[in-house]
Amino acid sequence: MLRGGLKWMFLIIGTTIGAGYASGRELWQFFGHESGLAIGLFALFFTICCLVIMSISYQRKSTHYLPVLKDIVGRRLTGIYDVMIFIYLFTTTVIMIAGSGATSQAFNFSYWWGISIIIIALVVLFLKGINGLLSINQFILPLLLVGLLFVLLWFTIDQELNLFSHWDEQRNWTAAFPFTALNILPLIAVLGAIGNKVQSKQEIWIACVGSGLTLGVISFIYNNSLIQIADELLLYEIPLFAILKHYPFQMLVLMSVLLWFAIFTTAASGILGIVTRIQDYIQQPLWLIVCVTLVTMIPLTALGFSTLINYLYPIYGILNLYVLTRLLLFPLWNKIEDKKT
């Protein structure tokens, strides 16, 4: 039970902590000053949403996201959100691939060299199907979380920061809604693909509460660190590097490797959501669909990492607010619809 719960917890975190989140770019886009309450609300909303999605997926024993989506948004809107999820997964995976290129540039390597590496790695990963993704998540994510927390706490202690010094200033609390909404669609896609593999409701609770608390704590500490170096962030495409410049080069190398794996696991989760949906129509090997999908993504990566995040993430955050509302009010919505029928 515990092992299964942790496996799904790492899948949820791996889907959420990608290039945008781990680099700090996504957090700074939505939070920043006066956002402590917003981050607390995000952790709560995120936990509730994961519980609803995983519970539906478990009940349906689903192998892709469409049955789960129908229960969440209703039959009338399923077609619209089906297309929207597909486009969302496609473009955010492009962002992850572009993030790999940006990471390689930080070490004066070619942007396209970084892109080539992640594409080859994704193809190799899916030669083992879904199990390959689950295995790498359980190995890589604990290292990433420990490494990220270590750097952030070290920075907090080194700079003598008070994590709760501005707790009375919370005017940005509404940011919790678009930020949570932004991260919902990929979770529907990924968790909808593993419903037939979940063994018990206890696994669901461990996975959802554990991921919500973990992301809440890291987000709060990370955002507080970024506030201290706000003036420098314009100079960095990846804000994490603005923090790491205060530390030895070895730390920069280690965190860059872990950042790349965060990018990789989120790209893999996005690809999983896409190809399991395509496989419902085209009965071809998973790795072949992965190859074709990745080839179509390559031209879009030329737009650049920060450009894609700055324009696409806020749009998705707003568009997904309806899904967030449905998830948070799901028990109430179900009772109303049951009375109608």
Automatic annotation (TrEMBL):
Keywords in alphabetical order: Membrane, Transmembrane, Transmembrane helix
Source organism, top-level taxon: Bacteria
TM region(s), chain numbering: 38-58, 79-98, 110-127, 139-157, 177-195, 204-227, 247-274, 286-305, 311-333
InterPro entries documented for this protein: YkvI-like
Name this protein carries in UniProt: Membrane protein YkvI
Native source organism of the sequence: Virgibacillus kapii
